[in-house]
Every structure is written in C-alpha cells, then in structure tokens.
Specification:
With 419 residues, this protein is an alpha+beta fold. Helices cover 36% and strands 24% of the residues. The strands form six sheets. Strands 2-17-4-13-14 form a five-stranded antiparallel β-sheet. Strands 5, 6, 9, 10 and 12 form a five-stranded antiparallel β-sheet that branches. The chain has a three-stranded antiparallel β-sheet with strand order 3-16-15, with no helix packed on it. The longest helix is centred in the first third of the chain and has 30 residues, at 55-84. The model is unreliable at 14-24 and 414-419 (pLDDT under 50).
C-alpha cells in the first residue's frame, strides 16, 4: 500500500525545485493533460504488480522522477540557448586601444571582422589656472566669489581667505567645494614640484564637441563683486573639447563619445590612439558556455548517483538507461569538450567548444537532445519501473480499455511541477 505520508515528507524535506525548472515547466499549459494521456497509454500495456513500497523504495522512485524532470529541464534550457546563439563574445587584438563587448545576440548584420583605427579620442574641456607658490599666501585676506556657467545653469562659489591661509590650502578647499556640488565639472590640483607651485585645474565631465557653442563651461565676471576668476586664472582654456575620430573598415567616423555601438549588438570602447588598425571579431564564449553546462552536468550526474546508490535490482537498469544516453553519443559529447568517466558520470575536463555545444543541444537536429527527452519521459511517467516487484497479472492485449486509476499508483506518482 502506498503510504502518501512518506511521499509528502520526502517532498518537504528533500525536494527543492530550481527556479529555471519551474519556469520552463509551468509555462506549458497542456503539460498536465499530455502527461495524463501518456500515463494512461503507458498503463494499457502494463502488467499488474505487487511490491512492498518501503520508505527507501518511495524515496528511490520519487528521486528518479525529480532528477529526470530536472535533467529534461536543463537540457531544454540549453536547447533554447543554442537557438538564440548566446555563446559568443567580441574580442579585440589590442585591449589597451580598443575594447569590445557583445551586448545581445542580434549580430547577424555585422561583418565577420571589424578593422578599427583610432585617430583621436573624444576629450573634455580643460581649464588650468595660475600657478601659485604652494606654501605662500598670495591672496589677501577677505571674501571672494566667482561664477561658472555650465550650459544654461549658473553656479556661484564663495571663497573666504583667512590670515595665513596658504595657496595650496585655498585651492584644495575650492576644488573640494566644486566637486561636492556635482555641477558637471571635476576640479583637481596640478603641482609643479620642481618650482614648488600649484594650480587649479577644471575638467568638464562631458566629452566631445557640445551641440551649442565650443565650450562646456565658461566664466562671467561682470555681475559679481570681489570676483576672483582673473586672479585665479581659471578662465584660461588649456584644451577645447574634441570629438573622437576613427576608421571602421577604412571608413572615417566621428563621435562625441569614446563608446560607440554597432547595430546595438556590439559596444566598442576607444581607449587610445593607434598607428595601425585593430581587429575586432566574434569568437565562441567558453566561459558562458561552461556556466550553462554546469547545471546540466549536475542534473545528469544526480541520476547516475541515484542509480549507483540504489539498493534495487532495477537500479542496474536505471544506470544502463541514463548512461546509455551518453554512450550512444560519445563522439558528439567529447567534441563539445565533455568526457564520460569510468563510473558513468559526465564531466568537463577542458574548455567546452560552444559551437559544438550548440550542435549537441540543437532542438531540431540533435539526436542527443531527442534521446534525453525520450528517456526522461519514460522515467517520469513510470519511475516504479525501477522498483523490485512481482507480476500478478498481465494485461488483456485483446482490448484497449484503460483503467485511469492504475496510473495514479504505478505511473507518474506526484507530478507536482505541472500547473
């Protein structure tokens, strides 16, 4: 007699379904109906058995069903990934000059290889003030101010000079005040150690030529009393903002940014000027492929563990069924970078080949993928097939009358993951 209490206790204490498996299975509305029909069909030709359903037998049977569901789910996820061609990455021949990254899989319109030569980078506006003796007090005691126009916004800063304040101390305080207000300008000090002098340096956070005018920020001394702009010399422009200029496959381009996007598929970061073209190309992403294959290997090896540790005569058949999948497709598995151990486990002992991995799990063309689906379906429909039992009666093969109550005991058990 099937003791459902043990079944429920097993689920509550041992089964933790992964988020991915739940997502894949719950999205199929007709799964429950299909499973039930397959259970009834399975039962039509199934003998009537007698067996002792101990706690160990229940855990063994339910473990088979859950592990088989997980294996099919992970296999399906890899199949969907292979159809989307997600195992590629963009690489550059010189990462110090040009860096590339693949942002999505819609790269079909890109040329097979990109040649990029950087003539100039996009730069900010840079103003450098007067160099003052660092440890002297060149600015008289008093209250001062200056105004900065950043785009259409006007900002006013106050500077209080006390007796004995050194130039370096005043400039450091002023730079800190500008940075704290986040006005789109970064301030810093530039030291000339040989002469012992310090100047205030202002950089625009934006780069490239602005749309309106040639400058990102400028100073207006007309409306403020005690304006210190001229004294500090920070209205002196050291370099104007410029656009990046570069060649892509011998065609000249210009950009206000050092990051460009090609067909919203590949992001290119321009990092330095180059005297010769840098090659950017798409190659298989071994790391991403390895991450995706790991959960599949865990699911497959979990079934092998159940078979090897099961105290049932049927455990031998379970071991043959699960390892038979790998043995029948040994060449394709090894071509993808996986190996079959002497104990029947699947392992990754080298870098996987993403292209071969896509072929291995291709939904339409892979016999390996179809073999997994076929084998795991049998396991989930009737995990009691691997339990030790005695045949009581054989089915009447002259009729096709299905008994819908038998499958609830002999096929499927609790299909808790279907909705």
């Amino acid at each position: 007699m099937l003791n459902l209490n043990h079944v429920y206790n097993y689920y509550s204490s041992q089964i933790t379904q992964t988020r991915n498996n739940q997502r894949v299975q719950a999205n199929k509305r007709n799964d429950l109906k299909t499973v039930y029909n397959n259970m009834v069909k399975e039962n039509q030709n199934s003998p009537f058995y007698k067996f002792t359903f101990s706690d160990a037998n229940q855990a063994f049977a339910i473990g088979i069903k859950e592990a088989a569901l997980a294996l099919e789910s992970e296999s399906r996820l890899l199949s969907e990934g292979s159809e989307q061609q997600t195992h590629m990455k963009a690489v550059s021949d010189n990462e110090h000059v040009v860096s590339a990254s693949l942002v999505n899989s819609n790269y079909g319109d890109l040329p097979e290889q990109l040649s990029i030569q950087v003539d100039s980078l996009a730069t900010p506006q840079t103003n450098v003030g007067t160099y003052f003796p660092s440890n002297e007090a060149s600015i008289p005691k008093g209250d001062y101010s200056f105004g900065i126009a950043v785009g259409r916004n006007q900002y006013t800063f106050r500077l209080k000079v006390n007796e004995g304040d050194t130039n370096q101390q005043l400039l450091r305080n002023l730079a800190g005040s500008i940075n704290e207000n986040n006005i789109g300008i970064r301030a810093a000090l530039r030291n000339n150690r040989s002469e012992g002098t310090t100047a205030l340096v202002l950089h625009s956070e934006a780069i490239g030529k602005p749309n309106n005018g040639d400058l990102f920020f400028q100073f207006d001394e007309a409306y403020l009393e005690d304006d210190i702009t001229s004294l500090l010399g920070i209205d002196h422009i050291e370099s104007l903002p410029t656009n990046a200029e570069f060649y892509i496959n011998d065609t000249l381009h210009s950009s206000i940014s050092n990051r460009i996007s090609l067909n919203h598929a590949v992001d290119i970061d321009l990092l330095a000027k180059s005297d010769e073209p840098i090659q950017v190309r798409l190659v298989p992403d071994e790391r991403k492929a390895a991450d995706q294959i790991k959960t599949f290997l865990d699911s497959y090896n979990q079934l092998v563990d159940i078979a090897r540790n099961g105290n049932q005569k049927g455990a031998t058949k379970l071991f043959r069924d699960i390892t038979g999948i790998a043995n029948r497709h040994k060449n394709e598995i090894e071509a993808a970078g996986l190996t079959i151990t002497e104990d029947g486990y699947l392992a990754q002992e080298q870098d996987v080949n993403p292209l071969k991995l896509q072929e291995l799990f291709d939904e339409k063309n892979s016999s390996f993928r179809k073999d997994i689906a076929r084998t795991t379906e049998k396991m989930t429909l009737n995990p009691l097939h691997y339990i030790d039992k005695v045949v009581v009666t054989y089915p009447n093969t002259n009729t096709n009358y299905p008994n819908p109550y038998y499958p609830s005991k002999y096929s499927g058990l609790l299909f808790n993951d279907y909705s």
